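---------- Forwarded message ----------

FYI, see the Flagellar operon protein (TIGR03826 family) record below. Original note from H. follows.
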Amino acid sequence: MGELANCRRCGRVFVKTVRDICEACYKEEEQLFEKVYKYIRKKENRSATIPEVSEATEVDENLIMKWVKEKRIHTKDLPNFTYECERCGSPIQEGKVCQTCAADLKKELEREEMIQKISEENRKKQQTYFSVDDKIRRKR
């Protein structure tokens, strides 16, 4: 069973289950999505940018961006449907970061792994010890 929450769009109290908006706002968002989807399905509109689609359909750009990020709108056939990389701000069509930032993040992770591996090896070397019994047994 869901918990009571306020709709983030209209502020009404509703029983929160899967969505963070009430049923009325969800239905309204779905109607807006259909409006945008019908617009971008037309061949002559596929070269439109997000601001152009927003202006033509009177749907907020942030809502369109939300659908792109949720992958409800696929940008494969929409060459000008770009949004900003979350790290550097360069235009991208899929994911959260551009390929350059992804490569940089991968290098940073590999470097951190190497540092941790070296520090772990050094820690193991420092923890090696012999007991007095070991020394006595070796002398015999």
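H. also flagged this: The beta strands are 3-6, 13-16, 83-84, 91-92.
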